[in-house]
Fold Nucleic acid-binding protein asmtl.
Amino acid sequence: MLSDLNAVRAAHIILASSSPRRVDILNNVMDLRARVVPSTFEEDLVKADYTPAGYVQENARQKALEVYRRLCAAEAPPSLVIGADTVVVADDKILEKPRSTEAATVMLSELSGRSHQVLTGVALVYGAAYGAPPTEDSFAEMTEVDFASLPPELIDAYVASGEPMDKAGSYGIQGMGGSFVTGIRGCYQNVVGFPLHRFCTRLDVDRLRRSGRAGSMESPPV
Amino acid sequence: MLSDLNAVRAAHIILASSSPRRVDILNNVMDLRARVVPSTFEEDLVKADYTPAGYVQENARQKALEVYRRLCAAEAPPSLVIGADTVVVADDKILEKPRSTEAATVMLSELSGRSHQVLTGVALVYGAAYGAPPTEDSFAEMTEVDFASLPPELIDAYVASGEPMDKAGSYGIQGMGGSFVTGIRGCYQNVVGFPLHRFCTRLDVDRLRRSGRAGSMESPPV
């Protein structure tokens, strides 16, 4: 995709997430010039109805579709809406953002001294011309993360720092939480919240060019 | 170490490297308040005399010792000097920073479609009291990195971006180069240039407290 960066930058790409880490990867690291339009999707899916990989993909898809429909209704159809959702999975249990400092302490105790999985689901919703339904693509990427044993006073100090509170699994690998990680197997950016390599290989630049043209036209060509 | 962060921050820590990535990990991610004093060590070791792990450790050690001696000569003895050196190893060949865009193109072609190792050596030089020699500790950390196959036009576009030029192995995993990486095995920060977890477990906070007291006193206690 890097050799097509100009075509990608020229498209109207929307990121349906306000996660500063995803914005950083797409707009600072890759300079894709995506506009950020946070989704209002409630994220009220019933976890028991899904595998973890299915759950993050469906969350990502619903986030992207909500933003796509809203922009089309506002007569600002985008070329591409990117949705993403990240969870931590330990013993087949899905860990999301902690709701309290106590919940963060419990999650970090569960992750201490063992391996867990980080799953990010990504949905790509490409705009279609003339009122046709959008085309969709989605995938989930998994990375294994090995945690050192964390003494209780270390967990307390980390929770007191505030870093865990807005992060799936109650830690940020790109922050002080990175000091707990002895190693990973798989894509690092996936743990941060966006599987960059897989996105770059999966993005369909030809489709993006077509949907970009469609989005910029008000009526069919004659 | 996180539960001892205040003691670490109170010490006079010197980072003998001006690598913006190392400064970021120590001072932004971990907020260690280290002062940056780049080493003037020539980095003229003969590679053939060392294993790759021995080579990066000795480079790190020489960098740290040069800065330690300079600060002591200026009567500003530090508590701790941290030296670090990172190389990429492919087929037992050490790849450092490219000397030209052509060299960067060749290195990236060598890394394309296969795995390589990233080695970072770290040296910790703790200050001693009253003219005694400093105490030293050093280690090397290895991470395996898997690269996707890179078509020539992708390599050309990446070299043209300028990103490869100041980086061992001609890529930055924390930048656009991260999009080439299908996965890693081991510590991510080690690939960026500083093995954060290993440093945190290896740092001897008690020794740092003692050398901090020594450094701040002008004469022996009575």
